[in-house]
Design a protein that fits this description.
By secondary structure, this protein is mainly beta. Helix content is about 5%, strand content about 45%.
């Protein structure tokens, strides 16, 4: 009775997987010879099925059990009774597979089924990381041990994407002994995670390696206490506090406090003199520090400082006192920058004839002899200690 139930079930399953649904499957015959010594030998992605041939039969039906569908499905029909091996491929590693086999006669009638089960071999063992370190700005290096399995043909390198929260393939290394990977174009001062997966010639993947954590070289701190002069002639001096680990500094300049700031110069000092050679010019500066690894402090977070070349002195205020053939000038410096005064005297000797004389005094007054019958024009310039001269003079006219 028990054998009969098994035969009915086997017949039902074969019927369910037949390619021609209109053709009724033959009933199993419990009197037909069955397969002996049915065994399964595993690989990682395949299973070899072995049995003792039954030459008196016409062939064999082989089925595999599909747990998700909860049923047996026929995977092969072997029409040679002398065959004794069948290899089931494209399997998953480390997974239990169940098979059953039945002989069939010349009418296609199956015998009772014989079952076996076996677990495929596990995945390849994981790769063992050896070293990870930063090399230079935005570049890290990873070294791992060559996989001990000589069937490995390549390695998949994956990097964890923090924003997407998933591992992403970034490169492939081959052959098996190529166990060095250099990743570049990375952000400064950021921690990155990698993992390595070995792949065999039959495309079996190993378990991922333990995460390899490595940080790129950090950026130097933001440069502080940046100051720029506003009282130097034709130049601006920028100074700042030193930054530990900085090998040099980069100066960025702009015509506006809001930028954009363009790279202008670099120096190993904690000061820089911008020689502009113009009076009253305003510039804006940022300073960044650069480490020996080439990393640079954040330009966006660097403070903006304004510098200015000393403007030309103001036009002096001049008062005069004429007494006969003597004229006295009294000078007042509106910006208190006057170190001396330049007086240009123009004597009008005719309609088109002029005589020019120049005088310099470091006093606040100046006396000159004039002819009351002639006309004179005086131009007075303020000169500061740097030799800067007021752009326009004070003008004094004497005579009719």
């Amino acid at each position: 009775m028990k054998k009969l139930i098994i035969s009915v079930i086997f017949l039902f399953l074969i019927t369910g997987c037949a390619t021609n649904f209109n053709k009724p499957a033959p009933k199993s015959n419990p009197n037909l010879p069955t397969v002996k010594e049915f065994k399964a030998y595993p690989d990682r992605n395949a299973m070899a099925l072995f049995w003792k041939p039954v030459p008196s039969m016409s062939g064999y039906y082989i089925q595999r059990y599909y747990p998700k569908k909860h049923k047996w499905i026929q995977i092969a029909t072997i029409n040679d009774p002398f065959k004794s091996i069948y290899v089931d491929t494209k399997l998953k590693p480390n997974t239990i597979y169940k098979y059953r086999i039945a002989t069939f006669d010349k009418t296609g009638t199956p015998s009772l089924a014989v079952e076996t089960a076996q677990k495929t071999l596990p995945k390849l063992s994981p790769v063992i990381p050896l070293e990870s370190k930063p090399l230079k700005k935005g570049t890290v290096k990873i070294i791992f041990r060559p996989h001990q399995n000589e069937r490995v043909k390549k390695y998949i390198v994956e990097r964890f994407n923090d924003e997407k929260a998933k591992w992403e393939k970034i490169d492939t290394l081959k052959p098996r002994l190529n166990v060095e990977y250099i990743d570049s174009g990375l952000k400064d001062g950021k921690i990155y995670k990698y993992r390595i997966i070995a792949v065999s010639f039959d495309d079996i993947k190993s378990y991922p390696s333990n995460p390899i954590v490595v940080s790129t070289y950090p950026k130097p701190p933001v440069v502080l206490n940046v100051k720029a002069s506003v009282d130097l002639a034709k130049q601006i001096k920028i100074t700042w506090s030193p930054v530990d680990g900085a090998v040099y500094y980069k100066i960025y300049r702009s015509d506006s406090a809001s930028g954009p700031f363009s790279f202008y110069a670099k120096t190993k000092n904690t000061y820089f003199i911008d020689k502009i050679n113009k009076d009253g010019v305003t510039k804006y500066y940022k300073v960044t520090a650069v480490s020996k690894h080439g990393t640079e402090s954040l330009l966006d977070e660097s403070p903006v400082v304004m510098g200015q070349t000393l403007p030309a002195p103001a036009i002096p205020i001049v008062s005069t006192n004429i007494n006969g053939n003597t004229i006295e000038f009294i000078f007042t410096s509106p910006d208190n920058r006057a170190a001396k005064y330049l007086i240009v005297k123009v004597e009008h000797e005719g309609l088109f004839k002029k005589k020019e004389s120049k005088f310099v005094t470091n006093k606040n007054n100046f006396r000159d002899t004039i002819n009351p019958k002639k006309n004179y024009t005086y131009y007075i310039y303020e000169v500061d200690k740097y030799g800067l001269i007021s752009k326009k003079p004070a003008k004094v006219e004497v005579g009719d």
